[in-house]
Specification:
The protein is an alpha/beta fold. The protein is built from 11 helices and 5 strands. Helix 7 links the parallel strand 2 and strand 3. Helix 2 crosses helix 5, helix 3 packs across helix 4 and helix 9 runs parallel beside helix 10.
Length: 240
Amino acid sequence: MEELEVKKDFSDIYTKKYPAPYLEEMKNVEYRIPDQTKPLYKHLTERMGNYHKRPISILDLGSSYGINSALLNFELIMSELDDFFIQQNPRPSIKEVQDFFDELPSKNPNLKFYLVDTSSPALEFAEKAGLCEGSFCVNMEKELLPSEFKMTLGNIDLIISTGCIGYIGWKSFEKMFENIDSQNSSPIFAFSVLRMFHMDEIEKVFRKNDFELVKTKIGPLKQRQFYNEEEMEKNHRIVR
């Protein structure tokens, strides 16, 4: 996808064993979209919980280290994660990470997170830290969905993506819809999409499966800073 070529490639920090390099780089470029999308996700899960009278299952596409889960489950903001993971020297061990989350006010019992990402180390961290019920390491654009993932899709209430649209496109959603029974399971989707990415092909897949994508009344979210002048120039060319 042409749009991906204009973005800085951060894959080296997504595949580290612990999230400190990721959080440090995101702090440097002022990436705070998970903080901004948190109120929307919280609103949706609360309304769905009140309606269903049970815990809500959330599928986070492009979840990385489980940031959305940490923010929603423990009422955190990204700067608090920065303080814990970045400021400590040496960096916290997995045991210290587990203790950090265990010592926070009790985990939200009404949310069950399932994570999807292409980074095995990031997902392994999230599982060890207790940030998810399960995870799936799969490139949905190129690979078949694992059988366990297919089974999980049938029980998902909310599917979110914070900044991953573009890396995942219509092929991924086509595969997911093949395993969503709209008669028995009709999840809500909630995405934040960078302005450079077009949703036309994804919208076609949604309409074909009797779903509709609509823009919220929420205004544009503040995006991260450009990593360097080269990324800025490439971005300006593609969005003109």
